[in-house]
Amino acid sequence: MRGRSRKDGLHEKVAWRENPRRAGLSVGQVQKHTKQEDLIGESMASETHSGTTMTKANLVEEVLTLGDLTRRDSEVIVETVFDAVIGALKKGEKIEVRGFGSFRIRQRKPRVGRNPKTGAKVDVPAKRVPYFKPSKELRDLVNPTEAELSNHPAA
Question: Are 71 and 108 in contact, with CB atoms under 8 Å apart?
Answer without folding.
Answer: no
